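Our consortium's second objective concerns turning raw sequence data into structural hypotheses that experimental partners can test. To show how far this objective has progressed, the report includes one record in full. It was chosen at random from the queue rather than selected for favorable results. The single chain below, 380 residues long, was entered without modification.
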Amino acid sequence: MDWTRNITPWFATSSRYFHHDPCFCFTLTSPHPKAWRIEGERMTLSFFQLAISLVIILIASEIFTNALEHLGERLKISEGVTGSLFAAIGTALPETMVPILALVAGTSAANVNEEIGVGAILGAPLMLSTLSVFLMALAVVRRRGINGSITPEPTGFIRDTHFFLLAFVLAAIALFIPVEMKIARMGVSVLLVLLYVTYIVKTLHASKKLVAEGNGTAADNVMFLSRVGLPTTLFTIIMQTLIGLAVLVAGALGFIDGVAAVSEKLGISVLLLSLIIIPIATELPEKVNGILWIRKGKDTLALGNITGAMVFQGTILPAIGILLTPWQPRHEVLIGVFITLSSAFWLWINARNKNLKVWMLFINGAFYFAYIIASISFSR
């Protein structure tokens, strides 16, 4: 007797607990010991992949930040340029690749690709302005205290948050532009790209003065490649930077793949995956770099890496999303946009006051958890 015929109808009606795909459902719920063992082994491998990828990211971040410090010192540029431009663009590669790959070479279902793309685009700055900033503050709360100061170079911090708020408000407005108004949507995309170009010019222009005032990038440790006998030249610095960046991206992509596998096995929805789960993985390089730098007392590099990545992801990525997706104001999207703008505005206010305390960045963490609660409430 084939026992699967007797239980299939029961599985098919248990949508609350099981995935709608029959094959997926059978894999999870089959009482056959061999099926359970295979599924358990797959889950174990997925978690092992997550652990290995995280170790790779940690090692790569050390290599990357060490090289960037030497590159900034060699080029005589400010910590703001090193953190907000070089580190930000480099570490933004994983989250940039996710929506582009989803939209260009994703699944056969266009709506699924668009959900992944929009979720990853909007989830990245949300994660940076809330959880990443909170974790960075958490890394120094024991050493500096809850009322301890975080002292990034103020003009760069204000510039980063100002440009991000301006860009993200434009991206939010574009949500309400109908898909049929292609010229208007294209105009917003072009404006966002021009904003980022303007941001780069202003950041580079401010660098010379900041270096003269003593805010130049300084390398505290010997470059890693020099420890194996290679001279510290511009060529070897760039070589180590590219090695660190390549390993960083590989580790991040491996982590993303592991998160996606675990989420699929647990039956997590595509939209939840793209808005919350994937950004946690893709923003790991910024989180780790920020923690490494702030623990060394390099507050400008730490915050600059995060706020600079916010500007990049608040301009270039929405410009892509507006052009390639419907970019519509769904409930989940609007909640994310509101929380992101609120947390970024909180950063901007404190940047202008020039009195940033550790506890203030804990508020950004509260914004993140508020988003999780709101998302769960609206999804019911």
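The partners drew two points from this record. The two ends are 40 Å apart (CA to CA). The longest helix spans residues 33-75. Both points have been shared with the crystallography group to help prioritize constructs.
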